[in-house]
Design a protein that fits this description.
single chain; seven-stranded mixed β-sheet; 9 strands; 265 residues
């Protein structure tokens, strides 16, 4: 085998977003500093190294068309796919743009770290994983790295039916016998409940306090600075510390997710 016969892995940064949020209406279009929340999210992923294509992946529902006006940069692709099946939508994205690896970002979490991404990506290659993610970071900061081949295999193993696909990570994490998982620890100095995703108005308020302090609209995001700031300013951190994941307080839903995302040997 010669070097000329090897092809460079194509990595796609995929921001998954829809307009159907129930708790905080049209949250993707709400302002974070001078940008909409979704544009802020895309800005951060554009700073990731070794990304060949950045795609805003939404559905073909009429309510999601407005997101085409919020791709932030001319090089960002806009993709419309399956309304409910996120896994199928991601596979369709990968096939259209000829991608080998997906870096999945959810559109409700605008604060993402290139430094964290690089550590995850290097670990993904070093371990030969199917699925890589952080194991111990605040809500809203995780980044998922997924082999497209593994995602297609997952889809096939579930007979092309993934009704809980918006909870994509469970399909991998609940099946370690089928997929090589790589959950990376960062050991960040976190003592309190830090939440950096947007599901409630309090979440948006906190993100805007952070933006006002650091002006990440103009500067690169620094996870250590944000954590240090929140740990030193307890009153600010408490703005949304009482909020929970939208499904974590629903034991029935969690049970259903775990049952339906696990393969039986």
């Amino acid at each position: 085998m010669k070097k000329k016969n090897l092809k460079k892995v194509r990595i796609g940064g995929v921001v998954v977003c829809r307009m159907k949020s129930r708790r905080l209406k049209k949250k993707a279009l709400l302002s974070v500093g001078e940008l909409s929340s979704i544009e802020y999210c895309i800005k951060n992923i554009l700073e990731f190294d070794n990304i060949h294509k950045v795609i805003l992946a939404t559905s073909d529902h009429k309510d999601d068309r407005i997101l085409k006006n919020h791709t932030y940069h001319k090089d960002v692709e806009f993709f419309k796919g399956d309304q409910e099946d996120v896994i199928k939508r991601l596979i369709d994205v990968a096939e259209k743009y000829k991608l080998d690896i997906l870096v999945r970002i959810t559109g409700d979490s605008p604060l993402r770290s290139n430094k964290m991404y690089n550590k995850l990506l290097n670990s993904h290659f070093e371990t030969g994983a199917d699925y890589t993610a952080a194991n111990d970071v605040p809500a809203g900061m995780n980044i998922e790295i997924i082999n497209v081949f593994s995602l297609k295999r997952l889809f096939s193993l579930f007979n092309n039916s993934t009704p809980y696909s918006e909870y994509l990570s469970y399909y991998f994490r609940n099946n370690p016998d089928y997929f090589k998982l790589n959950l990376v620890s960062f050991n960040l100095p976190i003592k309190s409940n830090i939440r950096l995703t947007i599901d409630y108005k309090e979440d948006l308020e906190l993100i805007n306090v952070i933006e006002k302090e650091f002006n990440f609209c103009e500067n690169k995001f620094d996870v250590e600075k944000v954590i240090d700031f929140l740990e030193k300013n307890e009153a600010i951190n408490k703005i949304n510390s009482h909020c929970q994941k939208t499904y974590s307080d629903n034991s029935t839903l969690l049970k259903d997710i775990n049952i339906n995302t696990k393969l039986n040997l």
